[in-house]
Every structure is written in structure tokens, then in C-alpha cells.
């Protein structure tokens, strides 16, 4: 980051001395005012719940221009990565900063591939869960449990351990997600096949059975790979910030990533694709396209507590570029599977069109986000709704690790410890129970 010559001056109307604060610029995006010494200089904190104006770190991984609707991984536009690279190339880019050449790609793919199997004992750990447990509950547990299975890669301060943990997590997440699914439906686990692509192997672990051969459909394989690429990283969102905060205490990488999985589960974040599909099904059950107006009216009525899921974003105040790519994939998958007339897809398209023309959404700059179409694609592939967020977690794992490793390598990194504006009772004394 570059220190600017000009400074920000904070002055107070009560006559307290003003304070000069340094300003830094990044490569692109808003400058930041450095307030680290503010408390020492003024005895005051800043107040910013939800981090609306706070940069929590410096990062060189992902950049979002919310007004333009632009998403860059290490400077490369998501549109180019999604159409010209595969997910493992994207993982390499996020982890190491550059796209791999052919030899680097082959080497990285081999390293990931060699780690796809999980410790056999993890099956028994998984068996402790109820069969109807939500896959995100299972995944939070399984990822956290990896720290108990892979002791040789838990030292977060050891770069070699961090590297092995990164490869293990990327390699094993598809296996764990598929195991969680198979367990839930009572089918045997399918071991990974390392001659398949990352996405192809995942589809096989999900949908093959020991009874017959499974052939990976290249259209679905490409769609899966794109879902992974589009979800790979998204700068300092809630789950990534959770991973950074959790990792800042020096905990092991598996524990930090498990914290990310837990955070992602929420419906305002990764759980939105599940919530979006449930919403579409609910409108369909109400009467479909004819009922969109009624549903939109409910969304606009703040007292209803209903939101249009898959719409709106903290950073994008324009069309989410991932949503466009996902819509393209949606068309491809539905046409491959002969589902062009899928009523939910038709409903989603109509809902999007109506919302984009509605003043409520226009004024608030609410556009479709990636989750608006990803649920329809996944449903068409045969993935159950409850597993959508698990697949998001699988894809985002690389982003979490890249961000965690970046933080640990940053000489300015400290344990994360926000301050607060305390509004509770001032000091008081405990009364004997009879007097309370
Ligand atoms: N439907 C209806 N109204 C909305 C919506 C929505 N989906 N999103 C925001 N608004 C309204 C909100 O009520 C508020 O209106 P007003 O100014 O009248 O009070 C205004 O828009 C600003 O909303 P906000 O809650 O202050 O915005 P935020 O930046 O805190 O929230 C969000 C961002 C993603 C949580 C929110 O847009 C939302 O709940 N969307 C639905 C859930 C969703 O699709 N999440 C996926 C995000 S993308 C995947 C990921 O990164 O995890």
C-alpha cells in the first residue's frame, strides 16, 4: 500500500486538539484512513458495526468494484477465468498469485489429486451424526475434525504445514461433501477416482453407486467446475473475515476453515442459494408466475420480514458478474438435460425481470446475485437443496485458505480484537438474593 502525502484531519467541535491521520492507497479502489493510533491519540474508538466503512486488512487476492459489477481474482476478471481456466488453475492463482503454466498446473493437479482420499476413520466419525442432520452441521464437524486426523499439518506458524493443510483441504472437501450426502441418503460412500477432473470426480462421488459404471457428463462437469470457480473467493465477506479472525488467534488451519463453514451456513450468506430455491418453490406452490406480484408486494412490505432471496449484495450495487455467468450455465445445463421448460427457471427469469423494473429494487440498487441461478443449476444436476451451501463451502475453501495464509504472512498481522461502545449498566453491587 502507498502512503499518500496528504493526510486526513479529524477535528472536534468541543475544542479538543485535532488529529492527523495517514491515508493509504491500494492499486484500485477507495483509499483508506489509518486509524490505528486513534485510540492512543484521542482515547476514542471508531464505531462501525457490520464493517460498512472499515477495511479490516490489506489484501492482494480479490477485488470487487461493486458499482461496476466487476470481480477480479489477482487482477483477472472472473469472466475470463470462468471461460478460459478451470477451477484448479483458479485455485493455484488464488494461492500463489499467478496463473500456472502447463507444468505447474500438472504438478499442482497431481498434488491435489494425491490427497483426495480421507482417513478411513472419518467414516466412523461421520456415523455419529443423525442421518437427517443438515449437511452444513456435518461439514462443520468433519472439517473441524480434520485437525484430529492430520496432526502433521496443524502448526499454523509453519509454512510447510500451511501448504500441506491447504492442499489437503482443497483435495478432501469434495470427498467430505459427497460423503455427507451419501450418508444422508443411506448409500455407500464412493471413493475418489484420480483419473477424473476435480469436478468430474466430485460428480462421480455424489452420484455413482457400486452397482454400475458412472459416466461423467461433460456439460454437467463444466457446470460444476464453473460453480466452483465463481464461488472460489470474494474478498472480505463474512465467512472469510471469520476465517481470518479465527486464524488470527493462532489456531490450526482446519479449525479456522471450520469456522468459515459455520459462518457460511447463514441465509444472508452462503445459505442464500438454498433459501432462494425454497422461495422459488414456495411461489410455484402458490400458483407460479401469476403470484409473482403478490410475492413482490410481500417483499416490499417491511413488516413481513420477507426478502427476495438471491437479490441484493453488500458490495455489488450493480448486476453481480457471477450471476450472468451462472445464468449462461443454467441455460446450458437445462438444455443438456432437456429441461428448457423447467417451470422454476421460467419463474426465476420472470421474477428477475419484474424485480429489475420495480422502483423498490431499482432505487436500492438490488440486482440478482450469484445465488439466484446457482440453485436452479444444482437442482437440475440432481443436487439436493440442503447440499447447496456445502458445495459453496467446498468451492470457497481455497479462498479461505489463500486469505488465511496471506494474513499469517503479513508482518502487520495481529490477533483480531474489535472494541465496543458499551451501553450496559455501569458498575453496581450485587444485592443479597432476598432484596433483588
Ligand atoms: N429483498 C428485499 N429488500 C432488500 C433485499 C432483498 N433481498 N436486500 C436488501 N433489501 C433492502 C433492505 O430492506 C434495505 O431497505 P431500506 O433501505 O428500505 O431499509 C436496503 O435494501 C438495504 O439493505 P441492507 O440489508 O442494509 O443491505 P446489506 O448490505 O446489509 O445486505 C444482503 C446485503 C446480501 C444481506 C441483503 O441484500 C440480503 O439479505 N439479500 C438476500 C440474501 C442473499 O441473496 N444473500 C446472498 C448474498 S451473495 C452470496 C454471498 O456472498 O454469500
UniProtKB/TrEMBL annotation:
Pathway(s) this gene product operates in, as recorded in its UniProt entry: Carbohydrate metabolism; tricarboxylic acid cycle; isocitrate from oxaloacetate: step 1/2
PROSITE patterns: CITRATE_SYNTHASE
Keyword Acyltransferase: yes
Catalytic-site annotation from UniProt: 313, 371
Superkingdom field: Bacteria
Record keywords: Acyltransferase, Transferase, Tricarboxylic acid cycle
Reactions catalysed according to its record: oxaloacetate + acetyl-CoA + H2O = citrate + CoA + H(+)
Sequence similarity: Belongs to the citrate synthase family.
UniProt name for this protein: Citrate synthase
Naturally occurring in which organism (per UniProt): Tepidimonas charontis
Name of encoding gene: aarA
Amino acid at each position: 500500500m502507498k502512503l499518500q502525502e496528504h493526510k486526513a484531519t479529524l477535528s472536534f467541535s468541543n475544542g479538543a486538539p485535532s488529529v492527523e491521520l495517514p491515508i493509504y492507497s491500494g492499486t484500485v479502489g477507495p483509499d483508506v484512513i489509518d486509524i490505528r493510533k486513534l485510540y492512543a491519540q484521542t482515547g476514542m474508538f471508531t464505531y462501525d458495526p457490520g464493517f460498512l466503512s472499515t477495511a479490516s486488512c490489506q489484501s492482494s487476492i480479490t477485488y470487487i468494484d461493486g458499482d461496476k459489477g466487476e470481480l477480479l481474482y489477482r487482477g483477472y476478471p472472473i469472466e475470463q477465468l470462468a471461460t478460459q481456466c478451470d477451477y484448479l488453475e483458479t485455485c493455484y492463482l488464488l494461492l500463489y498469485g499467478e496463473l500456472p503454466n502447463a507444468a505447474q498446473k500438472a504438478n499442482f493437479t497431481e498434488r491435489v489429486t494425491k490427497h483426495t482420499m480421507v482417513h478411513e476413520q472419518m467414516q466412523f466419525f461421520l456415523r455419529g451424526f443423525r442421518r437427517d442432520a443438515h449437511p452444513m452441521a456435518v461439514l462443520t464437524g468433519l472439517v473441524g475434525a480434520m485437525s484430529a486426523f492430520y496432526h502433521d499439518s496443524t502448526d499454523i506458524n509453519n509454512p510447510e504445514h500451511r501448504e500441506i493443510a491447504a492442499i489437503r483441504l482443497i483435495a478432501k472437501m469434495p470427498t467430505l461433501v459427497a460423503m455427507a450426502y451419501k450418508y444422508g441418503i443411506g448409500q455407500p460412500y464412493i471413493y475418489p477416482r484420480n483419473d477424473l477432473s476435480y469436478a468430474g470426480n466430485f460428480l462421480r462421488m455424489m452420484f455413482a453407486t457400486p452397482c454400475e459404471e458412472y459416466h461423467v457428463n461433460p456439460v454437467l462437469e463444466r457446470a460444476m467446475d464453473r460453480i466452483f470457480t465463481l464461488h472460489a473467493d470474494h474478498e472480505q465477506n463474512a465467512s472469510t473475515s471469520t476465517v481470518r479472525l479465527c486464524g488470527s488467534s493462532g489456531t490450526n488451519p482446519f479449525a479456522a476453515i471450520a469456522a468459515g463453514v459455520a459462518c457460511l451456513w447463514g441465509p444472508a450468506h452462503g445459505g442464500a442459494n438454498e433459501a432462494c430455491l425454497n422461495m422459488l418453490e414456495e411461489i410455484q406452490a402458490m400458483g407460479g408466475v401469476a403470484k409473482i406480484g403478490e410475492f413482490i408486494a410481500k417483499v416490499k412490505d417491511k413488516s413481513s420480514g420477507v426478502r427476495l432471496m438471491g437479490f441484493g449484495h453488500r458490495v455489488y450495487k450493480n448486476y453481480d458478474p457471477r450471476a450472468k455467468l451462472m445464468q449462461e450455465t443454467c441455460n446450458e445445463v437445462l438444455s443438456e438435460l432437456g429441461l428448457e421448460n423447467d417451470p422454476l427457471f421460467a419463474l426465476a427469469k420472470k421474477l428477475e425481470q419484474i424485480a429489475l423494473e420495480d422502483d423498490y429494487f431499482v432505487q436500492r440498487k438490488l440486482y440478482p446475485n450469484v445465488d439466484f441461478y446457482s440453485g436452479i443449476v444444482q437442482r437440475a444436476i440432481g443436487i439436493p437443496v440442503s447440499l447447496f451451501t456445502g458445495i459453496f463451502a467446498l468451492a470457497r475453501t481455497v479462498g479461505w485458505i489463500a486469505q488465511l495464509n496471506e494474513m499469517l504472512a503479513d508482518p502487520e498481522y495481529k490477533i483480531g480484537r474489535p472494541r465496543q461502545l458499551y451501553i450496559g449498566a455501569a458498575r453496581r453491587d450485587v444485592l443479597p438474593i432476598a432484596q433483588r
